[in-house]
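sorry for the late reply, my laptop died twice this morning and i had to redo everyting from scratch. anyway the thing you sent over, i finally got around to it. pasting the sequence first so we're on the same page, its 796 residues, then the predicted structure underneath. double check i copied it right bc i was rushing
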Amino acid sequence: VAAALTLAIGIGATTSVFSLVNSIVLAPLPFPHAERLVAVGHTAPGLYIEGTGLSAGTYLHYRAYGRGFAEIAIYHESVVNLAGGGAAEAERVPVATVSHTFFSVLGARAAAGRLPTAADADGSGERVVLLSHDLWARRYGADPAIVGATIEANRQPRRVLGVLEPGFAFPRRDVGIWYPSDPDPAVARASDLYQQGIARLEPGWDTAAAERELNRLVASLPEAYPDLTARTLEESRLRAVVRPLAEEIVGETGAVLWLLLGGMALLLLIAGANVANLFLVRGEHRQREIAVRTTLGAGRRHLARAFAAEGLILAAAGGAAGLLVAVAAVRGLVAHGVPGLPRLDEVSIDGRVVAFAAGTSVVIALLVALLPLLRYARPDLAVTLREGGFGATATRERQRARKALVAAQVALALTLLVGSALMAQSFWRLTRADPGFEAVSLLTAEIALPRAGYEDYAAARRLWEALVERVEALPGVAGAAAAGGIPLVPQPAFHDLAIDVEGRPGEPRAAVTVHHVTPGYFAVMGIPLVAGQGVRSSGAPAERPVLLSAAAARRLFPGQQAVGKRIRRSVSAGADSPWATVAGVVGDVPREHVGGEPAEIVYLPILDEAVDPGLRPSYGTLVVRTEGSPSPLAPAIREVVRALDPDLPLASVQTMERVVAASMARTTFTLLLLGLSGAAALFLGVVGLYGVISYSVSRRTHELGIRVALGAGAGDVRRVVLREGISLACYGVAVGSVTTLGLTRFLGGLLFEVTPTDPLSYAAMAALLLLVAGLASSLPAWRAARVDPIAALRME
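ok and here's the structure:
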């Protein structure tokens, strides 16, 4: 039972993480011939852009002249306000605007209606949409009559062309609507690289060949699209990038999961070593039986079958229990979710996972079951049959294998414990890092304004102004503001624009993010003003004030004072882009997660159309500073929005503290799993150490009795036993320190302000192991000190 439960711990933990690796990393994407799907994008190191997408121009150019592609498609994500259907209120639904080739690239099929053609997406006819199967069932009751009917999205009528098959989800699981829309070749530009690209390769083509083909076409882009000049192409060093779509979706999560699987494998090895020690002890007790069997003619093959049968029974028990642990763990993980973990809805216990658990169980059980056979299959028959396998003390050879296994357990446990300590330190530092804003008592909610009813800048401005004013008047509200985006939250509608600096026309343009903000935004968020002044109306059309984040100021004006300088959208975006004066610089905030790279942002005053009339504030986040707990104010804020516009849904209502926690979800997830594995490793290591020392005491009862009879005191006996336990732990710590130095370097990319060789973590975990080794040895030492020498001398 002890061996089966020990195996269940190791097998359950390893199988749980393997199910994640299997479903997220190893399993093909749920599309036909998914191995030929690739993501297509660009990099522009001259603009400090590591990765960006396609433009309408590059899509048309690559599709027309590129070889090796069965089809190419583009898409971009946004949100719409959906009214009608079975729900009484409007709701915000994620939407993807896609080229008509999108569905053929992914091999999608329609469950009802049909897929779009080029004629449906050219903009000349009525506007059409496709619905996800989930949205169709949830909002429209799976009514077949929805096909051909008209729905209202962002207050505009759109005819439903079809419903996609169950399970189709791209680019994200929660996308409910797809707009077919092909770019117009007459107005397409090559420089607006804001759309995502996917493609299906022809058989025989790989990503490297496809990338070379597209980069051959990059050089000819200025000939087809004058907005991208040869000089701009040279300055930006624009290059096409082609990656497997599965790799693009999984991203850095794959490396994290492999790392966690390695940690669970160490835990499994510790469990295996523990069980191996149990079998060695059992084998030592069975030496007389083995000798009798051998004397009666049993060969090594017969003995191996007997031991293997015991091992397989153990494998069945331990593997079944471990699989139950894995099933429960995976169900809990899927139910509660991990923000940012891709393909989480696809995680399950499938045949490959069951085979992994069964195979691991059998291999581990057979190895540990046959280990005693290797040690004791050739006994000295005369001595064994005469003495029954007992002597005054166990020989050094008999003890060496058991002690080696315990030392290995301690070494492996040290690796897991140090990894857990490094992640814990990193997490502790993250929670205390300055995010650049005050998250406590801050409530956020997202709102998207449809074009119908908010066609011009003035209408959108009036809505934001009235909303902020009414929310500020609510009891318990200390301040309210709105912005086009807030830290740590990816925005479905954003503007990453190339910026020109006055007086430096020949320099490469820097791409920055642009957000509209209302007055008071920085005070409500707790973002400090570094230089100049805050958001204000321009007063005079010539001023057109804007603010920069400190990171944007450093990028645009290295080594200079940014206040008073002038910038504008790159002239490639339109000759009428006005110059704007930098009125102030504010503190940095992270783009994706606390401790990450600061976002480079240009803040435009939402109340001043003169700054840039081409950017309508159609999407934003309301931020509310409260005097007490922020969550109870959510219903009152909903009523304010409903009073202003009943068709505007309020979405993603959450506290800023929850946003911060979600941004650290990957670190928290890794810390949790490594912490649990480290605790389990410590427990198994202590159990193994206790078992070996306790058994050693029982085998040395005769010897200890002689020591006491010759005058040894209780303290002397305790020291002998304690020294044995501490020595084993010291050997394990010494070996483990070397192996840990080599393995923890794989944690480097997950750590924050902590090095993989942090001496504090090593010292603390080594001290912890030595302490528990002493505690594990103390009980056998106490029992040894109570040996009655007369009874000990008589027992054998």
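The chain has a mean pLDDT of 83.
thats about all i looked at so far, will dig more tmrw
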